[in-house]
Amino acid sequence: MSLERFLSNTVSSWMNEEGPQSDIVLSSRVRLARNLTDFRFSTLYSPEEAGQIVERVKEKMSSFPKELGELEFLPTSEIQPLEKRVLMEKHLISPNLAEDKNVGAVLLSPDEDISIMVNEEDHIRIQCLYPGLQLKQALSRANELDDWFESELDFAFDEKYGYLTTCPTNVGTGLRASVMVHLPGLVLTQQMNRIIPAINQLGLVVRGIYGEGSEALGNIFQISNQTTLGKSEVDIVEDLISVVNQIIAKELTAREALVQTSNIQLEDRVFRSLGVLEHSRIIESKEAAKCLSDVRLGIDLGMIHSLSKNILNELMILTQPGFLQQYSGGPLRPNERDIRRSSLIRERIRLDKDTCEEEES
């Protein structure tokens, strides 16, 4: 296994699997933040201390049990800026770790469903990813990894406040549970502006596709917990699942309403977007994301049969700036990226159509 393997695969293996409610919930993620007792937090530690943390984790990984899986240790010092961007676009590392100049590392599983970041905002961040709505499964997997790390390393923990973290909002469980959801129905029926404040009042937060500070491209939103103190990990996850199930119900109702009241307009929107993706020679990332969202909605509603559902997942990553440049072998100017993006989309759609036709025959 090598860094090249993680960079060359557009879609992580776990993303090709079907999960519960996967027509709306693209993925579930659980992340645990942990810090070592005998080192200062990342806001205060020196480069030397950061290096010592990396070495300590690397040393412990020599005894990592096989039953928990296989992890590749990748120091960030050996990853080029463009390569970091690609890993970030695949949600394998955070924007913070991609941009940070400090000494760090990431541990990745072959299927890319496990990502453990070293010296991100916290010393260790354990992340598990699953397709569809599988937050409980992701939490169970993350807890298994956390138990092993805690048996090998001394984590900063307070009997009253729980796990101590760099940012006070993570103190307690250190848990961030989130789902990535595709909500075109609620956006097109103009309900999202009302739903987001209601979700915030429940102690949850709605963000864009890459988390805090990012934009909701292609009607894809990330919903996660804000509260980490005073509630158990199980309660946090169950509360999030309850809210997500309500959002799923509202999205399905919105889609049904669009079909009943504006079906011809909806079909026109879907097939116009498909036409743009199939025939454009220049396309910007926002337009591509909008068109991909429309096409995915058309697939979910049975309007389009010639493309697979996973095409949204793949092309949303493949068309990002970092992946485009990595795929092309070097830096590209914005206009060159737009040309390359349209070319890749056309190639991928043509390939997917050929595959679907072969399966039907």
UniProtKB/TrEMBL annotation:
The family database entries (Pfam families) matched by this protein are listed as: ATP-gua_Ptrans
Top-level taxonomic group? Bacteria
The entry assigns this protein to a family as follows: Belongs to the ATP:guanido phosphotransferase family.
The protein's annotated catalytic reaction(s) are:
L-arginyl-[protein] + ATP = N(omega)-phospho-L-arginyl-[protein] + ADP + H(+)
Question: Which spans are transmembrane here?
Answer: none
Q: What is its EC number?
A: 2.7.14.1
According to its UniProt entry, the protein's GO biological process terms are:
phosphocreatine biosynthetic process
Q: Where is the Phosphagen kinase C-terminal domain?
A: 24-254
Record: residues binding ATP: 27-31, 91, 125, 176-180, 207-212
Q: Name one GO cellular component term.
A: extracellular space
Taxonomic path: Bacteria, Bacillati, Bacillota, Bacilli, Bacillales
Keywords from the named record: Allosteric enzyme, ATP-binding, Kinase, Nucleotide-binding, Transferase
Q: What's this protein's name?
A: Protein-arginine kinase
PANTHER family per record: ARGININE KINASE 1-RELATED (PTHR11547:SF38), ARGININE OR CREATINE KINASE (PTHR11547)
Give the molecular function GO annotations.
Answer: ATP binding; creatine kinase activity; protein arginine kinase activity
Query: Under which main EC class is this enzyme filed?
Result: transferase
Function of this protein?
Catalyzes the specific phosphorylation of arginine residues in a large number of proteins. Is part of the bacterial stress response system. Protein arginine phosphorylation has a physiologically important role and is involved in the regulation of many critical cellular processes, such as protein homeostasis, motility, competence, and stringent and stress responses, by regulating gene expression and protein activity.
Task: Give the species.
Answer: Rossellomorea marisflavi
Q: Does the keyword Transmembrane apply?
A: no
